[in-house]
Structure formats: structure tokens, C-alpha cells
Design goal:
Number of helices of chain A: 14
Number of strands of chain A: 0
Strand content of chain A: under 5%
Structural class of chain A: mainly alpha
Distance between the termini of chain A: 13 Å
Oligomer: homodimer
DNA sequence: GAACTTCTTGACTCACTAGTCATTTTACTT
DNA sequence: AAGTAAAATGACTAGTGAGTCAAGAAGTTC
């Protein structure tokens, strides 16, 4: 089976528990049940391993939010739902998040630096997109303050979720966060508070954003999702939208029911217009 | 010359820049201009060194807020001012904060763990005290949510301050944060939002708080400050209060004017009742 | 089943660093 | 100036861990 994936998982587990520097390649190899030499045939260095970990898990966590972004809930609900599914993802990949929160990595290199920058950029452009959808252009002068506070609240609740055993429900938490943002945003919009941050100061955090939005071109799966959603939207009628939303829901489960998925895809494929896109996505989700 | 202090400063600088594991005792020794053997005569191990660093700088940053807590500004202004002086402190000890933010330390030991717990407890009990002073007991059900969000906003703005060159003014920032807390608190109090966190979940974060408040018994200097402020408050009249506030202001400067300080202390010492306390504090501040 | 290719292994090298301690240097005393 | 106590030094020990590679195992082909 997928040995590469097994390595990533074992590494995340160990690094999450003991930290990057206190986890040796030997221990990772032992934990997967292979030799150090083998390990090095998959990842040419420890640094490459940690980068691959980040890329792998980031993809998993963000993809959820991306897919939610495609359906057409009203902005407020969609934002909350996106938080929710990310929190669900985080609960599922707890040890990845533990690792991430420790923050300790290799001596920062070019590669690592640019990856961190991309990750941050992705988060911020997602937040920006949502703020603009919610409040329109009038929010622009306050967007950095809002994004900054949102990001910090988001991060710290994430930390809370993974460190305490008594799970806070992802749904509640998503709604909570959006509500707090809304309160702060309205206060800004009513002119009571003044912003502290501006484009100039935040330049290091603003990544050249894709016109398309926050989540473009991050993987074949995401493209396949987008293609299906776009097609579904072009045909009107809610039926296929319900089907694809149901597929999205099922695919987020930790053990999606393969038969249910197959059946749902069958429904999509009945429509000739959708056939190609549906098959492409099915290919991605059921290998 | 205080060699111990020189070591702490050099170590903070190096660890802040390169991280704990990538800074060797040899490099620290070289940077101070002493030998490794000497270094080990001050700090019996690397772990002891990092703990001493934390104790030293935590003291410096928090002491400022402690002293502000003693004067009698109205709660809202006092809270903002406390944030402000902490931010000023943070700017002054930037590399300490960089080090702290990296978060990476030795394999967590008993000692380190308990120090981290104490630090967190100190921050939270300070926040709690201020929330109670501002809103009274009615805020209790919402205090954890507010404290949690405050702490996360505080931490993330701190990170922003040390990472961007364009300094955000500590005064503005202090006011900004208190204003945001106020908005969120009022929303809770008006019953629009429901709290998410409770005592049960937050047990790991609540430290057995001193009855006295958040900042007690953290050092001789703080006790001396408290003694003077208490005496000044017992005598009434604003004169001595103005003097001691002025002393507090001067002492926060990076290079306090020694003559000004001496003169101000002279003014206090004119009052027989204050003489002993004033001398004790002067002893602490002008060694 | 022999010849050949690909994968896997773990002993080995090399670089690094926390912590020690016999020896030397400096500071102080008489 | 000699003697003694205290402080500073840096070569040394012992341990760790990233990354390599020659030799061996497993799989494939004819």
C-alpha cells in the first residue's frame, strides 16, 4: 500500500508528540517498520519530509473549505460552515495540528520559508474573500484588522480544540467565530472604531492573490470539484446541486461509504451534460 | 559588570535569531566573550539557562503592568494603559519576545512545564481581574471566552509588533485591544451571544489565583512598589500620588534619568510617613 | 533456474554539542 | 615578592543523529 502516506502519518504522529528536533529519522523509520535507507528513498532529507507533511495535510484541511465554498449557501452561513468543516478536519488530523502548533521546524530555509508564506497567503485570501462577500467593498479599510483578529481567534480556538479533551463542537465553534467577526465588523462599519493596520504594514502577509479567489489550483481534486459544481450551476434546478452537496458531505466523513458514493455519482452521470465532469471527480475520490 | 545579565542578553539574542536547538552553549559563550566552562559556572545546564531567561524577562515585562495596576486610573483606562506599557516593554525586549514566540525549547521537563503554567496563570489572572473590575460579577459566565479571545488577540498583535518594522504605537494598540474586548463583552452582556467555554474546560488554564490579585509576590521590587503606593493611598491628597506616578513613568524609560529619580525620591522622603518605603524602593531601582 | 534489475537494509562516516575537569591565569593577601 | 585562593579556560568525553553506500534480498524476465 501507500508507504509514502504511512511514513507521513507516522512522522506526524511522532513529531506532533515530541517535536521536530527530538524525533530522529531512525525513529520514524522504526515506527513505519522500514529501514532508514528506505525512508531516505522516499524523502531525500528530513527537511523534505517535513515540507511534504505540510503540503499533504494542508491540502486535506483546506480542500474541505474549498468544496464548501463552491455550493451556494448565503455568505454568512457559508463562512460559518467553512470554519466548521475545517474544525472537523482539524479534529481528524489532530496530531498534524499538534505538530503545526509546536511550530518548531528545521533551521528555516528558503523552501520552508516560502511554504509558510504560501500557507499564510492562502488563509488570508480566504478570509478576505469571505469578508468581501459578507460586507462588500465598504469593509476594505478595516479588512486587515478584521482578518488579523479573525486569524488569531481562529488559531487559538484551534489550539484549544486539540489540547482539551472535552471537544467543543465544530459547528458551534464555526458559528461563534463568525458571530464575533460580525460584531467587530459592524462596529468598524458604524464608524466607532478606527483601523490600526493597513496595506503598507501588511505587505509581508499579502500574497499575490489569484483573481479566481483563494483556493485555485491547489490540486487535481479541487479542480475536479470545481468543474462539477460549475456545470451543476450552469444547468439550473436544485436537484443536481442537492446530489453534489450530498457527495461533498459524504466525502468529508472519515470513512465515506463507497456504495453510497457510487450511487450518488450514478445519479449525476444520468445527465449527459454532467457525465464527463462527474467521472473525473469520481476518479479522484474513489481510486 | 553584571556578567550573568550579559549572558542572558547574549543568549536571548542568539536563541531569538536561530532557535534553542540551533544555538550551542559554545556560541553563547563566544558571543559574551567567555569560555564554556565559565558559562557553566553561572548556569548549570542549558535548560537552567533558558528557564532563567524566561524568569528574568517575564519579570521585566510584567512588572510594568503591575506598577500601573497600583495607581488609581479608572478601570478602562488602566486596562488600556497596562496593555500599553506591556507593549512598550515588548518593543524594548524584542529579541526575548522573538525567542518566546518561536516557542521551541528543550524537551519539556517538569521545571519548564511548571514555569509555562505559572506564566499562563499570571496572564489569565491579570485578565480576569481586569474584566471583573470593568464589568463586575455579571461578566463571570462569559469571562473565559473573553479572556481566551483577548489573549489570542494580544498574542497575535504582539507577534505583529515584533515582526514588522513599521511600529504600531503601543498606546493606540492598547486602546484598540481594550475597545475590541469592550465590544465583545457588551455583546455577551446584552445576551446576543452565548459563551462557549466554561470553568470545566478551562481547568488546565486556571491557576490557583492569589486572593491578592494577579501580580503578587513576584519579586522584591514589586513589593517595594506596592508598599509605597499603599502608603501614598493611605495619606490622602494627590501630591504624593503624582510624584510616585512620575517615578513610575521615569523608571519605565530605557535610560531613566538618575538625577530626576533621585530628586523625585527626595520629594517623597520629605514626608516622614513615607520615608522608609521610599528608601526601600529607591534601593531597588537605583542600586 | 539463471541472469538481471530493483528494492531494502543497517553498519558506517562525519559533524555537532552538552557537560566535565585538570591545568593555567588572575586577583588578593601578607 | 611569595603564597594562596578564586576564577577562567579549552581539550576531552560521551552521546546523538543526519545522511551514505556496499552488500544482500526480492522480484522479474526469458
Amino acid at each position: 500500500m501507500d508507504k509514502r502516506k504511512a511514513i507521513l502519518e507516522a512522522a506526524v504522529e511522532l513529531i506532533g508528540a515530541k517535536g521536530y528536533t527530538h524525533t530522529s529519522m531512525q525513529q520514524i523509520a522504526d515506527s513505519v517498520g522500514i529501514s532508514k535507507g528506505s525512508l531516505y528513498s522516499f524523502f531525500p532529507s528530513k527537511e523534505d519530509l517535513i515540507i511534504s507533511i505540510y503540503e499533504h495535510y494542508q491540502q486535506l484541511v483546506f480542500e474541505r473549505a474549498f468544496v464548501i465554498g463552491l455550493n451556494d449557501l448565503p455568505p454568512y452561513e457559508r463562512f460559518a460552515k467553512q470554519f466548521q468543516v475545517q474544525f472537523e478536519g482539524i479534529l481528524e488530523y489532530k496530531s498534524y495540528m499538534k505538530m503545526h502548533m509546536r511550530g518548531e521546524t528545521a533551521q528555516s530555509s528558503e523552501k520552508l520559508e516560502s511554504m509558510a508564506h504560501r500557507m499564510r497567503g492562502r488563509l488570508f485570501s480566504w478570509l478576505e474573500r469571505n469578508l468581501l462577500d459578507l460586507y462588500g467593498d465598504q469593509i476594505s479599510p478595516y479588512k486587515w484588522d478584521l482578518m488579523w483578529m479573525t486569524q488569531s481567534i481562529y488559531t487559538s480556538y484551534t489550539g484549544l480544540m486539540i489540547s482539551t479533551e472535552s471537544t467543543i463542537g465544530p459547528e458551534e465553534l464555526g458559528q461563534h467565530i463568525v458571530r464575533q467577526i460580525d460584531i467587530l465588523a459592524n462596529d468598524f462599519l458604524s464608524g466607532n472604531s478606527h483601523p490600526l493596520l493597513d496595506d503598507e504594514m501588511m505587505r509581508p502577509f499579502s500574497v499575490g492573490m489569484d483573481r479566481e479567489g483563494a483556493f485555485t489550483s491547489f490540486g487535481k481534486r479541487e479542480e475536479a470539484w470545481k468543474a462539477v459544481y460549475d456545470k451543476v450551476h450552469s444547468l439550473n434546478g436544485d436537484y443536481y446541486l442537492d446530489v453534489i452537496d450530498r457527495i461533498s458531505e459524504e466525502s468529508r466523513k472519515s470513512k465515506p461509504d463507497e456504495l453510497v458514493m457510487k450511487g450518488l455519482f450514478q445519479l449525476l452521470k444520468e445527465e449527459v451534460e454532467l457525465k464527463a465532469e462527474a467521472e473525473a471527480l469520481e476518479e479522484q475520490l474513489l481510486p
